[in-house]
Design a protein that fits this description.
The structure is a single chain. This protein is an all-alpha fold and about 120 residues long. It has one domain. Helix content is about 55%, strand content about 0%.
């Protein structure tokens, strides 16, 4: 029998034992909470009557909406700096295009997560 080329998958960090506590603001704890379907405020989706998969989809969309708002604010600030600021304050056409593409990608992701499955 052939041996696998890569090691078997494993968890980022094992679950803490009863005597140890994990800081809820540590990177690993935050990654686990994101994987568990937390919304942009770091809390589980508040509507409990939804199915678990739908709660996670709504939490993902909420996080993506927060990211989209940030991208849009950056895009607006960059455009205002281009129009009203010194020429050296302009971030460049490639960055502007990247911000627009990021916004489009987030919109597509949000649309997919908001659409009911099934």
């Amino acid at each position: 029998m052939n041996k696998p080329h890569s090691p078997s998958p494993r968890h980022i960090q094992e679950a803490p034992g009863p005597e140890s506590t994990v800081d809820p603001n540590s990177l690993v704890a935050i990654l686990h909470s994101i994987g568990g379907g937390v919304a942009s405020d770091g809390q589980p989706w508040p509507e409990r009557h939804q199915l678990r998969g739908r709660q996670m989809a709504m939490a993902d969309a909420d996080c993506a909406l927060t990211g989209q708002r940030i991208v849009q604010e950056l895009l607006l600030a960059a455009e205002r700096a281009h129009q009203n600021g010194d020429p050296d304050q302009y971030v460049g056409d490639r960055v502007m295009e990247g911000l627009a593409m990021a916004s489009l990608a987030l919109t597509t992701f949000i649309q997919e997560r908001m659409r009911p499955q099934g």
